[in-house]
Design brief:
This protein is α/β, with parallel strands linked by helices. It contains six helices and nine strands; from the N terminus they run βββαββαααβαβαββ. The longest helix is centred in the last third of the chain and has 18 residues. 41% of the residues are buried.
Length: 229
């Protein structure tokens, strides 16, 4: 897919952590683009650079060399709130806020009134059967429920680009399948791009495109990826 400007473009972007003999190359020089409507499964073993790539695409980290840009979105300052949503692999809810407040917060930051933000957040939670948890604190729900709340929070703003880092990693198979269906449905409804990094081939197989990573190097033209965990 190459219609219009890419939502995100990596131009020789690479990331190294540390310096000298202890330096770790997390991502080799990477050239790739993601366009509106694309749905991509990013697969590869642990430590292959998947999370690093997603963090660069999200503007959460800087490449050591090369460049990351968002031609169809704008500057890095315009990515959030709303345009680019990130679903992290680990816990990401704010402990002092309820589930509803966690879900509505990005909307309020983006300029929505508190009343409207709560209504939109309720709808997003209801989509994932989480509305019953709206008044609970993160410490009062399970890790799997917290991950699903994070998905609801990401989708509430109808983002242009959804970057999900192992979003089903803490969920049982049924809950994970439901989350993937919601992500696919939401991205299709909004015309947004979806990039999911995953170890789970049942998740990757739900996505029409597949990128493969090994040792910090990426192949963007593979559909039948093979790797050992």
């Amino acid at each position: 897919m190459s219609e219009g400007l890419p939502l995100v473009r990596c131009s020789g972007a690479a990331r190294t952590y540390g310096k000298g003999p202890t330096a770790t190359v997390a991502l080799q020089a990477t050239y790739c683009e993601v366009f509106a409507g694309q749905r991509i499964g990013l697969v590869g073993p642990s430590g292959s650079g998947k999370s690093t790539l997603l963090h660069l695409m999200a503007g959460l980290d800087d490449p050591t060399v090369g460049d990351v840009s968002w031609p169809a979105i704008g500057t890095r300052d315009e990515l959030r709130p709303g345009r680019v949503a990130v679903i992290f692999q680990g816990p990401s809810l704010l402990p002092p806020l309820t589930v509803l407040e966690n879900t509505s917060l990005p909307l309020v930051i983006g300029g929505m009134t508190d009343k409207d933000a709560r209504e939109v957040a309720h709808t997003a939670l209801r989509t994932l059967d989480l509305d019953v948890l709206a008044d609970k604190l993160p410490e009062e729900i399970s890790g799997g429920q917290a991950q699903r709340v994070a998905v609801a929070r990401a989708l509430a703003g109808e983002p242009t680009l959804i970057l999900a880092d192992e979003p089903t990693g803490q969920l049982d198979r049924a809950s994970g399948a439901a989350v993937v269906e919601v992500l696919l449905g939401a991205s299709e409804h909004a015309g947004s791009a979806l990039l999911i990094s995953t170890h789970d081939m049942t998740v990757a197989e739900r996505l029409p495109e597949r990128w493969e990573m090994h040792s910090g190097e990426i192949q963007t033209d593979t559909r039948e990826a093979q790797w050992s965990r």
